[in-house]
Amino acid sequence: MDHKTCSDINDSLTPVSYVETEDNAGYELYITPARMIARRFLQNKLAVIGLVTLITVTIFCFIAPVFYSYSESEQFYIDKNTGEELRASDDSQKLSISVLNSLKPPCAKHILGTNKFGQDMLARIMYGGRISLIVGVSVVLIELFIGIMFGGAAGYYGGIINGVIMRFIDIISSIPDIPLMLILSSMLAVLQIPPKNKIYFTMLIIGLLWWTHVARMVRGCVLSLCKMEFMQAVDATGIKTRHKIFRHLIPNMAPNLIVQATLDLGGVILLESTLSFLGVGVGVPYASWGNMVSLVNDTEILKFHPNIWLPPGLCILAVVMAFNFIGDGLRDAADPRMKGR
User: Fold this and answer.
1) How far apart are CA 78 and CA 280, in angstroms?
2) How far is Cα 175 from Cα 85, in angstroms, rounded to an integer?
3) Do the Cβ atoms of 281 and 202 come closer than 8 Å?
4) Does residue 256 surpass a pLDDT of 80?
5) Residue 76 DSSP SS3
6) pLDDT class for 163, splitting at 50, 70, 90?
7) I need a labelling partner for 130 at 20 to 30 A (CA). Which of 64, 223, 288, 303 fits?
8) Is the alpha carbon torsion for 304, 309, 314, 317 positive or negative?
9) Do residues 255 and 165 touch, judged by C-beta distance below 8 A?
């Protein structure tokens, strides 16, 4: 049987929220919950890999294009006589005797080659990544705002308000996403909406359809928090309802909301890519990862030009997995009991 000394027992009883080092002997440094979550998060290798991947992709999509000389919609041509590559901004006389430099294999000038429209693939992947990330963040912000409002009201007030809101949520949840987006795409085509502006309508519709699960989660959290002693103490102070919600309830739900938002980002990016593949979203000549992958419908491109569809597909895979790893890591860090389940 092991025997412990008094110092061992005292050490075991020392709260984990305090640490003492030789450099600051006599001083106790409080470890905040945020630091504890960050420490647990950084101990999760997959979460760290996801974070590094996401940072790399963000730099690649938002900063690298500043130093890259080609744009997403710029087309390249080949002079018939000299074989020299021409840009769309070059002399019009030369362009008149040139052909489109389409489906060019990877080379020094075009690292990932060109597509069938003579556009640089690397530039389009950069700009297409911007669309995917912006759509993901925008939709998550919309769903959080709507979900917190409806879920918070349902959980806090209860009664008839709760019943009406929850039935409304059931109705919204029953609407099929993709068929509705296809109908929207047809309407936008009839209204002659510019291709670049179609993505704003896509973000809005996805955000208006994706908030229901957030509302359900918020409602459950509010119902649980309202039964806790600290909220009963808050009620006894007689502060205004909006102060109870925004100063006490929402801050205590923040970890759950952050985890949910991170997990939803991957799902939204995947949905946007699917919709772009089906023709909903950013239109030609503007780039998104989804409409770049849609070129795989061409049998020739599928068989002989994997540089056209494989890189954007891998980017979608990497970003979605990165967000899922980060979300799982945050969930495990915020609630260590969830780890391994």
Assistant:
1) 32
2) 50
3) yes
4) yes
5) strand
6) very high
7) 303
8) negative
9) no
Which residue in 69, 158, 80, 164 sits closest to 120, CA to CA? 69
CA dist 132 to 109, 181, 182, 213, Å? 26, 17, 19, 22
pTM across the whole model = 0.79
Structure tokens at 45: 């290798």
72-99 pLDDT tens trace = 888 888 888 777 888 877 666 667 778 8
Residue 297 tokens read as 């419908």
Residues belonging to the chain: 341
Q: E strands, the chain, where?
A: 18-19, 29-30, 76-79, 85-87, 98-100
Place of tokens 């799982």: 328
Asked if residue 209 and residue 91 are part of one domain, the reply reads: no
Verify that 139 and 108 share a domain, yes or no. no
CA distance 317 to 324: 11
Kindly state whether residues 248 and 104 are assigned to the same domain.
Answer: no
- Sequence letter at residue 111: I
> What is the distance between the alpha carbons of residues 267 and 290, in angstroms, rounded to a whole number?
14
Return the number of other C-beta atoms located less than 10 Å from residue 33's C-beta: 10
pLDDT at 245: 78
Angle (nearest 5°) at CA 228 between 225 and 232: 105
- Examine the domain organization and report whether 106 and 212 are in the same domain: no
The token pair that represents 180 in the structure block: 């509705």
